[in-house]
Amino acid sequence: MSNKKLLPPKTGDLADWYTTIIQLADLSDYGPAKGTMIIKPYGYAIWELIQEAMNPLIKAKGVQNAYFPLFIPMSLLEKEANHVEGFAPELAIVTHGGGEKLEEPLVVRPTSETIMYNSFSKWLQSWRDLPIMMNQWNNVVRWEKRTMPFLRTSEFLWQEGHTAHVAHDEAADMQKWAMDMYAHIYRNFFALDGYVGYKSASERFAGADTTLTYESLMPSGKALQACTSHDLGQNFAKPFNITFQDKEGVDAFAWQTSWGLSTRSIGGLILAHGDDNGLRLPPKLAPTQIVIVPVRPEPELITYCKELVNQLQQAGTRAAIDDRDDESFGFRLNKAEVKGIPIILKIGSKELEQKLVTAKRRFDGYEEQISLDVIANKLSQSLDEIQAMMLKASQEYTTKNTREASDYDEFKRIQSEHKGFIKVYWNDNAAVEKQIKDETTATSRCMIEDGVSGTDFVTGEPATQQWIFAQSY
RNA sequence: CGGGGUGUGGCGCAGUUGGCUAGCGCGCCGCGUUUGGGACGCGGAGGUCGAAGGUUCGAGUCCUUUCACCCCGACCA
Fold first, then answer.
1. A143: which nucleotide lies closest, measuring CA to C1'?
2. What are φ and ψ of residue A159, in 5° steps?
């Protein structure tokens, strides 16, 4: 029995499936204001697991968590020309406070470079103060024209890391470190494969010299920009006067980076792994990893199940019991599947008698019986296996849907026949990219190889870089 | 900002050329029977029909205005 009654097939209208599953699985709800989203406890629990995965890595790098204000004076935001130009169309601006018109409008942060660097400037005096490395978990607001839960909301949650360094190579290393960290999180926690590379001139962050991105392919064949990491050069250091005296006593501008990963990642998680029966969460990001579903609400059976939950929790797994006696066995099983719980344990009189459990994997539906004396180890191992299977599936999907084009005709042909990534030799050129976009709706996602030799797929000139193109979310 | 759509109990919807007490399914509450893949019976609660104005003896239904949200494109994490 599937969940077709309630959930449209994923292979049909993907947007319909997506918006339905988000509500069915109790991840989020729409807020009363346009484009806003209420993240419900089950969805927020996923976000907390993401935070728990990333925070230790961020802290181990020496980056400290801090918090900067939500409101940015307009004049601060305007200091870096490219930055303000890039964000101007999507700003929410506060003009009144306490019933009075403000002298200077306040921008609700779309990102915190400007307000943080205003402080960096004050705090930084000596080379001994460097590097400055701060991160904040916060909300930002971007007035997007078209919104979708998790993938693009007017307000979203993220972490934004910001650093300042003595030298450019240190900053460039930091930029790479952040993207390595993200790639690790995406592959090993989200089980989401993707390409890491540099953004083209027209796609990069407003105010950055270079932008690194993680581009993951969604079932629609569109690419999701999953997170970014920027080398800001001295673009902000100069207008914000972020200077220090170096070892020689000479005043110098700092070199900076910023990097962020948002709740959009949860949208990617839902899209990439879900199926016709609901969510399929990778064990590492599943708020509940194992759910025990007793067949009947008989005291003896419930006791057996509760002991098992304790045992599994002590073994370090996130286990829970669903013993609601007003819902039938089948209903509770379906609920667990909709919510994407990786392992479902079915326990009835047969299991009770024979001292075993019946375990079903959500990912592939595989079902087995496991003896009670090995249960904790076996299930921990099974969770690892599921995590690995999901990553493998994602990698296969990405590989299968990455095609190479040697010239523009072939590019257009592939694009019309398949959705997905197209790998090409190309020289970054904004005018050419605009033309490609107008003609095919595809844009460059990222540059994955540099220092190679090939032929530019549009102009036919020699090219030294290899790029990935796709339609984007 | 362009195009399309929708606003009627918590959710999904029906409501005819204006007409009588605004309905149905799911969910919810109570009691009972059930429970190995979305159980059933009986009883019950819950609505200023998005808002404002107008036409009319009479408006969920017609007219005007307006608001909101959703979906599809151009801009974006």
1. B76
2. -115, 145
Give the pLDDT confidence score for residue A5 in this predicted structure.
Answer: 56
Give the pLDDT of residue A4: 42
Q: What percent of chain A has pLDDT over 70?
A: 99
Considering Cα of A207, then A156, then A335, then A277, what sign does the dihedral take?
A: negative
Mean pLDDT of A305-314: 96
Nearest-angstrom CA–CA distance, A444 and A436:
9
- How far is residue A387's CA from residue A190's CA, in Å, rounded to a whole number? 9
DSSP H stretches of helix in A124-167? none
* The predicted structure's pLDDT at residue A438: 86
Please count the other Cβ atoms lying within 10 Å of the Cβ belonging to residue A392: 12
Q: In angstroms, how far is B55 C1' from A33 CA? A: 35
- Looking at residue A96, its pLDDT comes to 85
Longest dimension (CA), chain A: 80
- Tell me the CA distances in angstroms from A325 to A26, A155, A292, A297, A358, one per residue in order: 20, 39, 14, 6, 20
Could you tell me the distance in Å between the CA of residue A454 and the C1' of nucleotide B73? 35
Nucleotide at minimal C1' distance from the A142 CA: B76
What domains can you pick out in chain A, each with its CATH number? 14-273 (3.30.930.10), 283-397 (3.40.50.800), 402-470 (3.30.110.30)
The angle subtended at Cα A85 by Cα A79 and Cα A91, nearest 5°, is 95
Summarised one tens digit per residue, pLDDT across range A412-456 is: 999 888 889 999 999 999 999 988 988 888 999 999 999 999 999
Q: Which residue is nearest to nucleotide B38 (CA to C1')?
A: A331
Q: Is the pLDDT assigned to residue A364 strictly greater than 50?
A: yes
Residue A439 in contact with residue A416, Cβ under 8 Å? no
Q: Is A268 helix (H, G, I), strand (E, B) or coil?
A: helix
- What DSSP character marks residue A444? E
Chain B nucleotides reached by a protein CB under 7 Å: 1, 28-29, 34-39, 68-77
Per-residue model confidence as pLDDT tens digits over A4-28: 457 888 887 788 888 888 888 999 8
Distance from CA(A466) to C1'(B74), angstroms, rounded:
28
Query: For position A36, what pLDDT does the model report?
Result: 84
For residue A296, give the nucleotide whose C1' atom is nearest its CA.
Answer: B35
The residues near A404 (Cβ < 8 Å, ≥ 6 apart) are A422, A423, A424
Spatial distance between the Cα atoms of A444 and A464, rounded to a whole number of angstroms = 16
* More confidently predicted of A143 and A175: A175
User: A290 has which bridge partners?
Assistant: A319, A343
Site of tokens 């890039």:
A86
Give the global pTM.
Answer: 0.96
> In 3D, which of A212, A204, A172 has the Cα closest to residue A82?
A204
Nucleotide nearest to A24 (CA to C1'): B11
